[in-house]
Backbone:
């Protein structure tokens, strides 16, 4: 699975959009980009995933660049409860049995 | 909404004892996983399980560890002869790679404290 690079931490004001970047320059054509988050010491929570098209669900939007070398997770109106560690993972079907979590980005949403 | 449940939520044991952590995955999922997280560190993959056998395992998952699906609903992680460094949060997860697209659904975790 391709390596991903994320900033260590980010701040965001409550009510504003949180834009979390992820670089995956070595991603291969059949690898998806998955995003998870972990609030405090709870189990990680799936957010969204995509292959090459932008995706949106009730939690977030995922913007993937045309060359697929990077992506951005967007939380449109961040709340204090969105404070968490966010993980970007590149995963292909062959890697489906082993999702590997990196260090992620620690997002602090401030009032 | 279906969820993964784990028991116990917290277990304290003496070094050298055996521990069994239990998980009930989402009922129609076929792929099961154990992860652990030592306090302050990242979430580490231990093992994946499909069709009643281990699919992949990490270097952490040595002979001290074993997994089992003893019946149609439970998925267990056994840790033999526990060590102080086994103290961690253990997360169970399940996924549906057939009808779904592989996202993992995690339980709330079992905190293991080895004294």
Residues:
């Amino acid at each position: 699975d391709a390596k991903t690079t994320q900033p260590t931490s980010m701040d965001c004001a409550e009510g504003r959009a949180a834009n979390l970047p992820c670089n995956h320059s070595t991603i291969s054509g059949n690898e998806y980009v998955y995003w998870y988050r972990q609030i405090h010491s709870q189990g990680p929570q799936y957010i969204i995933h995509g292959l090459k098209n932008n995706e949106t669900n009730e939690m977030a939007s995922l913007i993937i660049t045309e060359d697929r070398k990077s992506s951005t997770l967007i939380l449109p109106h961040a709340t204090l409860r969105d404070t968490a560690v966010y993980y970007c993972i590149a995963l292909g079907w062959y890697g489906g049995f082993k999702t590997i979590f990196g260090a992620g980005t620690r997002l602090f949403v401030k009032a | 909404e279906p969820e993964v449940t784990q028991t116990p939520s917290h277990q304290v044991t003496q070094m050298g004892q055996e521990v069994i952590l239990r998980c009930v995955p989402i009922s129609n999922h076929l792929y099961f996983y154990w992860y652990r997280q030592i306090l302050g560190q990242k979430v580490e993959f231990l093992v994946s399980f499909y069709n009643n056998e281990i699919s992949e395992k990490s270097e952490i998952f040595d002979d001290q560890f074993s997994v089992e699906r003893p019946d149609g609903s439970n998925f267990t992680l056994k840790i033999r002869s526990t060590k102080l460094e086994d103290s961690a949060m253990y997360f169970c997860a399940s996924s549906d790679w057939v009808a779904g697209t592989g996202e993992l659904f995690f339980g709330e975790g079992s905190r293991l404290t080895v004294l």
Summary: The mean pLDDT of chain B is 93. Chain B touches chain A through 28 residues (CB under 8 Å).
